[in-house]
TrEMBL record:
Protein's UniProt keywords contain Signal: yes
Organism: Streptomyces armeniacus
Entry keyword 4Fe-4S: no
Taxonomy, superkingdom: Bacteria
Keyword set, alphabetical order: Signal
Species lineage: Bacteria, Bacillati, Actinomycetota, Actinomycetes, Kitasatosporales
Start and end residues of each stretch annotated as Disordered: 27-73, 187-212
Leader peptide range in chain numbering: 1-23
Pfam family name, one: Lipoprotein_15
Membrane-spanning parts: none
Low complexity bias spans: 38-47
Protein name: Lipoprotein
InterPro entries membership: Lipoprotein_repeat, SCO0930-like
Length: 326
């Protein structure tokens, strides 16, 4: 049993003249907020650290409370309504409120039991999200939502047990300027964990037909499942015709047609579709109908090559991979 590895298109395959038509088958940057500290005794905050002070001011300018234009302050203090999940570069899935404002968690809070330690000036910079009128949506489990009573008696939304906040210096929906502030504030992932810690799934391979480099046979073609494709000496390309019928089809299965935009190493001009006598469609490469072999047990197997002296692994240009048996 032989295995193989992916290969690029050969120069010969790319240089082929298209034969399909002649087959004969006439049918904004964030500032450094490293001075922000957890709430507690807010009077102990360093006024020169660029964080919040005992007076509740937050920001870099006199009289700046961190909200900028006070007209949009309500957008960061009101109900979250239906939460959403959006994908952020470098962070992955991030939870937002219904208006798209990023939601955050604070490492100095606790989940067992849930409790918030962000009060007074801290809460000006990081407005707690009310528990009322909040609902989960696709990507967020409803049981992950909860609430915690704050020291002032209000109820704050929790996600995965973590109290939920917005950030005053996010100036537009979609901003994530609060992520990483002071090393203790992080955008929320849908499970309540810190965003950016989830492993992203690798991009799904949608290739339906590819050229492979087999150690013994050289370049041959496989389908989306990695099965080797074969051609049959008793078929013909001009005119295109399959002579594998009846019991032959129990062992040799006609390969299904493919999307020509999902090829790798096979020239699209050589890929066509053959209509069998029973009306079903079969993939053809350079006008040769192609098949996969039921005797191949796994991706990369080439047990069908040389069978009966009639069946051969097919190359990207539609030729036989070899004239000798394995």
């Amino acid at each position: 049993m032989r295995k193989r590895r992916p290969a690029a298109v050969t120069g010969a395959a790319l240089a082929l003249v298209a034969m399909t038509a002649s087959c004969g088958y006439g049918q904004g940057e964030a500032k450094d907020d490293g001075g922000v500290r957890p709430a507690g005794d807010s009077s102990a905050a360093d006024p020169g650290a660029g964080g919040y002070t005992d007076g509740g001011a937050y920001g870099d300018g006199e009289g700046d409370d961190g909200y900028g234009d006070r007209a949009d302050r309500g957008a960061r203090t009101g109900a979250a309504k239906t939460l959403a999940v959006r994908d952020v570069a470098e962070l992955g899935p991030v939870v937002t409120d219904s208006e798209g404002w990023t939601l955050y968690r604070f490492d100095d809070d606790s989940t067992d039991p849930p409790a918030s330690s962000c009060e007074d000036a801290c809460a000006d910079a990081w407005p707690p999200v009310p528990a009322e009128d909040a609902a989960a949506s696709a990507g967020i489990k409803a049981e992950k939502l909860g609430k915690v009573e704050r020291p002032d008696g209000t109820r704050q939304l929790t996600l995965g047990g973590w109290p939920v906040y917005r950030y005053a210096k996010d100036t537009a929906p979609g901003d994530t300027k609060g992520h990483g502030v002071a090393g203790t504030w992080n955008a929320l992932a849908p499970d309540g964990k810190k965003a950016g810690q989830q492993k992203k799934a690798p991009p799904r391979d949608t290739t339906q037909l590819r050229a492979e480099d087999d150690p013994a046979l050289g370049e041959i073609v496989s389908d989306a499942k990695g099965r080797t494709l074969y051609r049959f000496d008793k078929d013909s390309a001009w005119p295109m015709k399959s002579n594998c019928t009846g019991a032959c089809l129990d062992t040799w299965k006609p390969a299904k047609p493919v999307d020509k935009d999902k090829l790798n190493g096979v020239a699209r001009k050589l890929v066509s579709t053959y209509e069998r006598a029973d009306g079903t469609k079969q993939l053809a490469i350079d006008c040769w109908p192609v098949y996969w072999f039921t005797g191949d047990k796994g991706a990369g197997d080439t047990e069908g090559h040389g069978k009966m002296g009639l069946w051969w692994a097919v190359t990207p240009d539609g030729e036989k991979a070899s004239s000798s048996t394995p």
